[in-house]
Amino acid sequence: MSTRKKETLPAAIVAQAIYNGVDPKAAQALNPELAMFARHPIMDLDRLRNRATLAEASLASAQNRLGDEDRRLELMAEKAVKAYGIGKRIQPITPEAAIKSLLKRIRGDGSSCDGYQTNVRKSLLSFVKRTREHHPVEYLSDITLEDVETEIDYLRAPKVKDQKTGDFLGEGKKPKTIKHRFTMIRELMAHAEARRWIEEDPTANKRVPKVPKGRIRFYSAEEVAAVFREAERNAFLSAVFAIEIYTGLRLDEVFKLRWDEVFIERRQIRLPAPKLDNKFKSIPIFDQLVPYLEALPRVGKTLFGEGRKKKALGRAVLRLVKRALPERAKETEEEGARRDGSQTARRTLATHLRALNVSAKRIASWLGHSVTVLEEDYCGLLPDGDRPLKITFLGGQLVTDGLPHPYPNPGIN
To answer: Are 184 and 99 in contact (CB under 8 A)?
Structure first.
């Protein structure tokens, strides 16, 4: 049986043929659908014209919608260019200018602590200086992944001098410091790529150097008591150590601490925190810290910074700890660990507060860290049988959420 496919003509040609008087039977033989045109040629031609008009209107409307969509996409693209630099031309920038821009983003306006920013600036500028010793670096885009890997090798190499030049062949940094330096470089490159200062971040696919997990160093309650006994004749050093232990402030923050930021009656210290919504962070003054603050003479605007240098203050506290805990100093040297400083005091506070069942979230808010960083790098475990420090607030034991009582003046919380 033949399966011949029926011939189909375009609708306009069929309508014109019928209008010109095609025989209905011939039309039926050609295609059954043409019979209706034969019966009412004029009426169906008008209907066809109406449909064509509607189709043209629908097509025009669709084209208008496509035009509106294209314009909307163009506006979105323009906004993306302004916000993220997408599609912008590369704008060369010097490494020093890029570092300055990065520090401004990290620090924020009005920060009271610039110790970390100073460390970042010095480390990145040293990296750029060493890179320029190998080849010219006019713009940040001149720095390659090979330069970054060379910097990592230099930081890892032992700190020995070249017999010919007298320059150090390396710095002998520990894995954690190397990882920190690499993170600084990666942050700089990502910052520059986002602003179209470089075409591509050379460190994007570079793996972060691994850091072996070491033990978290902190003071036991007995060691804290020994340091206070050693410093009992020096109210100044006693107060510095007490603030570090019972507030977790960094040395830079302690050095810059002002009397108008310390509210003994309200039992809190309020420091500028531009990264927070309320622009301030509150740190409680525990009962154990109050006598040390009250014993300090109020001379000048700051508690410790008048006529002193920060490094001298840090060295004085290190000597105090070394005299009070000679065995610990020897153990630290044998392990190759860093000397005990304000970071050890911060870890001490975090460890003992966790032992008192204060939540990690609350401790993190006081120390200014994320919960993850706090639990990984700050909270240690007290040995079996060791008791945590006695820490109370307004005579009450600390609770999971931190303070057992609100601050005496709720209006300043």
So the answer is: no
